């Protein structure tokens, strides 16, 4: 079990899959969300949590004021755990679980113009995810119109992994390390039309 750190559901526990995921530690989640509160991107945000696992990051965002959260997870057991967490917290109207690969979901989102843009995107892939797969997903996220102008993209990787190869549509602005975990922050590149 893991715990929602703060907000409406602060202190509530959520289930985590028995295997196959690497939940973000409470310490790292608290640091990420402290930064996001400082950046003022949570209240009323539309959030996309890719490689969601139990949904801890997206559920934390919902607890702290996000208006809409989409959790994308390809592992059936993990997606089922995320769905149960959504129901147990009473967030069915706010949080939606999509059981699909992140690569397919991101490609389809990039190809579907007209949807309301996301304000915040979390990517917490398995540490062994190939760099070219992460680059492809980031490339889809950089599609014009998919992210709001003030959006923040948060990528969690191992400190031993290289810096993500950011597409031209995303500009990194910070990196923080917490033990084995590196958290990278980026925003839509303001220099592009």
UniProtKB/TrEMBL annotation:
CDD domains found in the cross-reference section: AdoMet_MTases (cd02440)
Domain of life: Bacteria
UniProt enzyme class: transferase
InterPro entries tied to this protein: DNA_methylase_N6_adenine_CS (IPR002052), RNA_MeTrfase_RsmD (IPR004398), SAM-dependent_MTases_sf (IPR029063)
Keyword set, alphabetical order: Methyltransferase, Transferase
Molecular function via GO: 16S rRNA (guanine(966)-N(2))-methyltransferase activity
EC annotation from Swiss-Prot or TrEMBL: 2.1.1.171
A Pfam family it matches: Cons_hypoth95
PANTHER family with a match to the protein in the record: METHYLTRANSFERASE
Protein name (record): 16S rRNA (Guanine(966)-N(2))-methyltransferase RsmD
Organism: Isoptericola luteus
């Amino acid at each position: 079990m893991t715990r929602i750190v703060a907000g409406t559901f602060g202190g509530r526990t959520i289930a985590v899959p028995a295997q196959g995921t690497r939940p973000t530690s409470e310490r790292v989640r608290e640091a990420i969300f402290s930064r996001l509160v400082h950046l003022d991107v949570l209240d009323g945000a539309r959030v996309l949590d890719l490689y969601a696992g139990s949904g801890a990051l997206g559920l934390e965002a919902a607890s702290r004021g996000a208006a809409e959260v989409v959790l994308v997870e390809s592992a059936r057991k993990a997606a089922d755990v995320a769905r149960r967490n959504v129901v147990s917290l009473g967030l069915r109207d706010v949080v939606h679980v999509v059981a699909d690969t992140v690569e397919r979901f991101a490609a389809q989102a990039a190809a579907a113009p007209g949807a309301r843009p996301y304000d915040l995107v979390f990517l917490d892939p398995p540490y062994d995810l190939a760099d070219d797969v992460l680059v492809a997903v980031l490339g889809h996220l950089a599609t014009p119109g998919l992210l709001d102008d003030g959006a923040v993209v948060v990528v969690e990787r191992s400190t031993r992994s290289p810096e993500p190869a950011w597409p031209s549509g995303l500009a990194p602005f910070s990196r923080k390390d917490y033990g084995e975990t590196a958290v990278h922050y980026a925003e839509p590149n303001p220099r592009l039309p």
